[in-house]
UniProtKB/TrEMBL annotation:
Residues 57-242 form the Dihydroorotase catalytic domain. CDD domains: DHOase_IIa (cd01317). GO terms for molecular function: dihydroorotase activity. Residues 348-426 form the Amidohydrolase domain. Keywords: Hydrolase, Pyrimidine biosynthesis, Zinc. This is Dihydroorotase. It comes from Terrihabitans rhizophilus. Its EC number is 3.5.2.3. The lineage of its organism: Bacteria, Pseudomonadati, Pseudomonadota, Alphaproteobacteria, Hyphomicrobiales. It holds the Pfam family Amidohydro_3. PANTHER family: ALLANTOINASE. It comes from the Bacteria.
């Protein structure tokens, strides 16, 4: 690295891995954290010195679930625009989903994405490879070759593998390569053509529903298969109380099981759909308020390991449709941190705990460096003011699409600077 040393002083140093929250300074040299602490006052000759003014400094966020349009859907998001959106949200590492065109089910496509990311992304970008060929759920991909090419996990994105035999084979094969399978847990037959959470509110709107039981049934099946194969398994997004109890039993049994939820499901419930607001149409659907509260409690308890943005940009034509016909998806990269701070301000969990679910735990699951504020760790950092309020204006978003459910929402938590390997990529 040719960058000169950088000293960030007068900062609130938050290390989510250790749970510490102290005042001090942090020195960056050669792309890594060279030193930090309350007694660090001097910098090497020629270093750049930045006074943080008491703002919070933590490891950059690691988002395990985001859709980038390359290849095939560049009109929705490119690697360049998506990475700029990530940097603006304090996200320094992104895992992109495989549901592109063509699908990321071949080592050559993994290599292509890594080369495109090297040339166009301002943040660390890692591809997730498809679990089954063409995302069709019938034949598993070459997990070993894909992992060797650079895939960090295996998933069919927003599709579930309904065939239990195929799922068992994939889990068994993944175990031999210590590969992580990330699964969308929803029985496609029971979910059917539903467009929102099944229940009274759905009936009032005259829409078809997707019951929470579709999620719980698939998750229960997967837990039993994990118990049989002992393979590393991660439930991508759980959204209801039944799934939380299934996750609890899996963890109590000592299975290699983890789970996550999305910032959308922690922030909204089914009533936010209101008068058919398509920006709130996501997959899995938003659930009842009781489920949202249960998710927040499970996150605070540690049952839910990570929080993802589930960033899924859609163009205007796909969202300006009748609710039942519009595409699923909402933006999330630029609002994930500030939306998560709502939970901190409401007293549901501490700031280090929130950042652990947004950085340390996903980095650990993926086997990636980062997520820690310690000497020698990569200088992938976010400096933010957790108390500064703002009103979100979609026109200021860096994503090519503007389908954010936080349109004109009042939020707190402004990202001041994002650094990747010690280089400022957003300010």
């Amino acid at each position: 690295m040719s960058e000169r040393p950088l000293l960030l002083r007068n900062a609130r140093l938050i290390d989510p891995a250790g749970g510490t929250d102290t005042r001090g300074a942090l020195l960056i040299q050669d792309g890594v954290i060279a030193d930090l602490g309350p007694n660090l006052a001097t910098a090497p000759e020629g270093a750049e010195i930045v006074d943080c003014g008491g703002a919070a400094l933590s490891p950059g966020l690691v988002d395990m679930r985001a859709f980038f349009g390359e290849p095939g859907a560049e009109h929705r998001e490119t690697i360049r625009s998506g990475s700029l959106a990530a940097a603006a949200g304090g996200v320094t590492t992104v895992v992109c989903m495989p549901d592109t065109d063509p699908v990321i089910d071949d080592p050559a496509i993994v290599d292509y994405l890594l080369r495109r990311a090297r040339d166009n992304s301002v943040v660390n970008l890692h591809p997730a490879a498809a679990l089954t060929k063409g995302l069709r759920g019938q034949e598993m991909t070459e997990i070993g070759l894909l992992k060797l090419a650079g895939a960090v996990c295996f998933t069919d994105g927003a599709r579930s593998v309904a065939n239990a035999r195929v799922m068992t084979r994939a889990l068994t094969y993944a175990r031999d390569f210590d590969a992580l399978i990330v699964h969308h847990t929803e029985d496609p037959d029971l979910a059917g053509t539903g467009v929102m959470n099944a229940g009274e509110y759905c009936s009032r709107l005259g829409l078809s529903g997707r019951p929470a039981e579709a999620e719980a049934i698939m998750l229960e099946r997967d837990v039993r298969l994990v118990r049989m194969t002992r393979s590393r398994y991660h439930a991508a997004i759980i959204t209801c109380r039944d799934s939380i109890e299934i996750a609890r039993r899996a963890k109590e049994a000592g299975l290699p099981f983890t789970c996550g939820t999305s910032i959308n499901h922690l922030s909204f419930n089914e009533t936010d759909i209101g008068d058919y607001r398509t920006f709130f149409k996501v997959s899995p659907p938003l659930r009842a308020e009781e489920d949202r509260q249960a998710l927040a409690e499970a996150l605070a308890e540690g049952l839910i390991d990570i929080v993802v943005s589930d960033h899924n940009p859609q163009d205007v034509e796909q969202k300006r449709q009748p609710f039942a016909e519009s595409s699923d998806g909402a933006l999330g990269l630029e609002t994930m941190l500030s939306a998560g701070l709502r939970l901190v301000n409401a007293g549901h969990l501490s700031l280090p705990h929130l950042l652990r679910s947004l950085s340390t735990r996903p980095a650990d699951l993926l086997g990636l460096p980062g997520g820690r504020l310690v000497r020698g760790a990569p200088a992938d950092l976010v400096l933010f003011d957790p108390e500064r309020p703002f009103v979100l204006d979609p026109r200021n978003l860096h994503s090519k699409s503007k389908n954010t459910p936080f349109d004109e929402a009042r939020l707190e938590g402004v990202v001041l600077r994002t650094l990747v390997a010690g280089r400022t990529v957003y300010q």
